[in-house]
Design goal:
The structure is a single chain. With 206 residues, the chain is α/β, with parallel strands linked by helices. It is built from seven helices and eight strands, in the order E-H-E-H-E-H-H-E-H-H-H-E-E-E-E. Helices cover 42% and strands 17% of the residues. The chain starts with 7 loop residues before the first strand and ends with a strand.
């Protein structure tokens, strides 16, 4: 657009996970925060050329991503169980992709810098900006309870709830540390979910 001397608009899709730190999804939250800052930098750089830049930050959105999630270190039956659990959570939320599409159109028309999509996304944005101490405490709680299903939606939603189950400073009784070959050894358990360009999600237990 710049080389052709045309105005336009760039839309970057970030996530509500960009607003809060997360012990359960450190790589995902960090990468989405980077998208948010990239948007702000591009917006400042391209403003004089008449090019707008917006970041869209969806919360829990019901998309087919849950059916393509891959969980490392589990057998096929457990893989299916975790996918089904994630799909039920997303379907129960009932927030569909067409609402995100409408938010994108509104962002372009209004040249908005940042658009949280869904109630939980707006709530996470407020907490991250106005109560950073609370955000850090929530980060320590999120994902510290039931770790049977590792998915972005569950970890994001649990940030507003007190985690349940037994906890012992980074360790879970009876659980080991799973490597990518599926071997188990004692150690802390943490999940990392990564998205690729095809929309697939891969969750790692490290």
């Amino acid at each position: 657009m710049n080389d052709q001397a045309k105005s336009g608009h760039i839309v970057n899709v970030s996530s509500a996970s960009a607003y809060l730190p997360s012990r359960a999804l450190p790589a995902y939250a960090t990468s989405k925060s980077a998208v948010l800052m990239l948007t702000e930098c591009l917006r400042a750089e391209l403003a004089d050329q008449g090019i707008g830049v917006s970041a869209i930050c969806p919360g829990i959105i019901d998309t087919p991503i849950t059916g393509r999630a891959r969980f490392v270190g589990v057998d096929d039956d457990e893989q299916s169980r975790r996918r089904d659990a994630a799909q039920r959570l997303y379907h129960k939320r009932g927030f569909t992709a067409d609402r995100v599409a409408r938010a994108i159109v509104d962002a372009v028309q209004g040249n908005r810098a940042e658009v949280p999509v869904s109630v939980e996304a707006s709530g996470m944005r407020l907490i991250g900006r106005w109560a950073p101490g609370l955000a850090r405490r929530l980060a320590r709680l999120a994902g510290a309870g039931d770790r049977r299903t590792h998915c972005p939606a569950r970890a994001c939603d649990r940030g507003f709830q007190k985690a349940h189950g037994r906890r012992r400073r980074g360790h879970l009784p009876g659980n080991g540390r799973a490597d990518q070959a599926g071997a188990s050894r004692p150690g802390p358990l943490r999940s990392v979910a990564l998205h690729d360009r095809s929309g697939s999600t891969q969750a790692f237990r490290i």
